[in-house]
Write a structure and sequence with these properties.
InterPro entries: LRR_dom_sf, LRRC14/PRAME. This is Pramel3 protein. Keywords: Leucine-rich repeat, Repeat. One of its GO terms (cellular component) is cytoplasm. With 462 residues, the chain is of the alpha/beta class. Among the domains are: 100 residues, no CATH class; 165 residues, Leucine-rich repeat, LRR (right-handed beta-alpha superhelix), CATH 3.80.10. Helices cover 35% and strands 15% of the residues. The protein has a 13-stranded parallel sheet with strand order 1-2-3-4-5-6-7-8-9-10-11-12-13. Helix 4 runs parallel beside helix 5, helix 13 runs parallel beside helix 14 and helix 15 runs parallel beside helix 16.
């Protein structure tokens, strides 16, 4: 059992300070600015709401990011308190530390530190500040520098940014949080820019009023569930820089009609897109129309429940947009014998980049998947393979394992339950738990013999 690292002197000092709230708040005017970051992290993890509120008011850096801190239900009240404590006018008490906070970032981001490094510049420096909105700090100050040839007396209010990810799912919790954000923007009299980077929308028709209050130019990641294609197209016309687009359960009367053509026209503008997720979006014989207008070299492509045809698989194997994929998900698209050749070619094309492959519920049989095995064995960077719920036999499953064990980066395989474990045809009969246990034990032994105990083979019996 690993021993827990003993607390450092700094940890002990912070713990003692946080246990005395009045002293901690009073000390904020005196402690070195270098201690603000570790004190903030400790106060956030310990849920010291009043101390966090006081810290935001006197934060001595340009930006403050949640970053790697874990935000669970208990911490959501802390986020609200931080928003409430934002100040747009100078602190009246001259004895207080002068606040420098211009950008409050409430997003969880594993690649983002609590503050950005100091840069020698007169303008506020933050690597994560808004770059596209007309209301961003950078654009406002750039305009000010052009219009003002000489320094003038600064406005009593400074431009600020509040960076968030939003999920418009209709829940009371999200509605209350959004109401708080919009109220704070209104209180600022135009000095606070609400910058939403990741926007998730459930039932677009229920969110139209809310969208009027958001600047869609800020959005990097957009997810829409349940909408008409015309509604999605209207939304896309307002974004300028998407990295990721996820559309699910989108209705379209005809793939040969005006609505689909307008949708394609908007996709053509997405020069920076590297992830496309189209789920339950019927594209039979029309995948080419979608992919050919996108930038070459997509990283992530999800196409579950899209009704892909031979024509679609053939284009997928030839198009430059899909020749460097790191992730490919074509689950729930039946794959027949004639589809195997183009899909084999696709796997060969992306064998040097593919890390995650999902081909669940594709009606793959022994004969069809045997065609794909050689190409799979060449995917040297593959880390996750999921091919559950396909009707294959135990001998074929064993053969697949033998082909895959040399792939040293492959750590997780989600495999289908062999057909002999069911009373009747695959999925229609009752599952024999003992037969499944025997399968699992046999695969475990094979992995041990191949010296691949680091490889996890799992299945689902629900």
């Amino acid at each position: 059992m690993d021993k827990k690292e003993p607390p450092t002197l700094l940890d002990l000092a912070l713990h003692r300070l946080l246990n005395n709230e009045p002293v901690a708040i009073q000390a904020l005017d005196e402690i070195p600015r270098e201690l603000f970051v570790p004190l903030f992290s400790a106060a956030f993890m310990g849920r010291h709401k009043n101390i966090l509120t006081a810290m935001v008011k006197v934060w001595p850096f340009t930006c403050l990011h949640i970053g790697t801190l874990s935000v669970r239900e208990a911490q959501r009240e802390l986020l609200k308190a931080m928003v409430e404590s934002l100040q747009f006018l100078p602190v009246q008490n001259s004895a207080s530390r002068s606040p420098k906070l211009r950008i409050l970032d409430l997003r969880q981001d594993a690649g983002c530190k609590t503050i950005c490094p100091d840069i020698s510049t007169k303008s506020p420096a933050c690597f994560h500040s808004c770059a596209y909105s007309d209301h961003s700090i950078m654009k406002i100050e750039a305009q000010a520098s052009v219009t003002c040839s000489e320094p003038e007396v600064q406005s009593s209010k400074q431009a600020m940014e509040l960076v968030v990810d939003l999920s418009l799912d209709g829940t009371l919790r999200e509605r209350e949080f959004l109401r708080l954000l919009l109220n704070k923007v209104q209180q600022s009299s135009g000095s606070l820019h609400l910058c939403c980077r990741d926007l998730q929308i459930d039932k677009l028709c229920d969110c139209r009023d809310t969208l009027n209050h958001l600047d869609l130019k800020c959005i990097d990641h957009l997810s829409v569930d349940q909408a008409s294609l015309a509604e999605v197209t209207t939304l896309l016309a307002q974004v300028v820089h998407l990295d990721r687009l996820c559309l699910s359960k989108i209705t379209c009367r005809s793939l040969n009609g005006k609505a689909f053509r307008n949708f394609i026209s908007q996709l053509r503008r997405m020069d920076h897109l590297n992830e496309l997720n189209l789920s339950s979006f019927c594209l039979t014989d029309h995948l080419e129309n979608v992919l050919r207008v996108l930038p070459a070299g997509l990283d992530f492509l999800h196409l579950p429940f899209c009704g892909l045809s031979y024509t679609d698989f053939k284009f997928l194997s030839e198009c430059p947009q899909a020749n460097h994929l790191k992730l490919l998900n074509i689950s729930n698209n039946p794959m027949y014998w004639e589809d195997c050749e183009p899909f084999y070619n696709l796997l060969q094309n992306i064998s040097g980049t593919l890390q995650h492959l999902a081909i669940n519920h594709c009606l793959l049989t022994d004969s069809t998947i045997s065609v794909l095995i050689p190409a799979l064995s060449h995917c040297s960077h593959l880390r996750v393979l999921s091919f559950s719920s396909n009707p294959i036999t135990m001998p074929m499953l064993m053969r697949i394992l033998e082909y895959l064990t040399p792939l040293m980066q492959l750590k997780y395989v989600i495999y289908p339950i062999p057909v002999h474990c069911y009373g009747r045809w695959h999925f229609q009969g009752s599952l024999d738990r003992q037969k499944l246990a025997d399968v699992q034990e046999h695969l475990k032994i094979m992995l041990q013999e191949a010296d691949r105990n680091d490889m996890n083979w799992i299945t689902y019996s629900d």
